Amino acid sequence: MMRLGVDLGGTKIEIIALDERGKELLRRRMPTPQGDYLGTLNIIAQLVRDVEAELGNQGTLGIGTPGALSRATGLLRNSNSVALNGKPVLNDLEELLQRKISISNDANCFALSEAVDGAAAGAEVVFGVILGTGVGAGIVVNGKVLTGPNAIAGEWGHNPLPWPVTDEIPGPACYCGKHGCIETFLSGPGMMKLHQQMTGTKITSAEIVQHAEQGDAACERTMQIYEHRLARGLAHVINILDPDVIVLGGGMSNIERLYANVPKRWGNWVFSDRVDTKLVKNKYGDSSGVRGAAWL
Ligand SMILES: [Zn+2]
Question: How far apart are CA 295 and CA 132, in angstroms?
Answer without folding.
Answer: 23
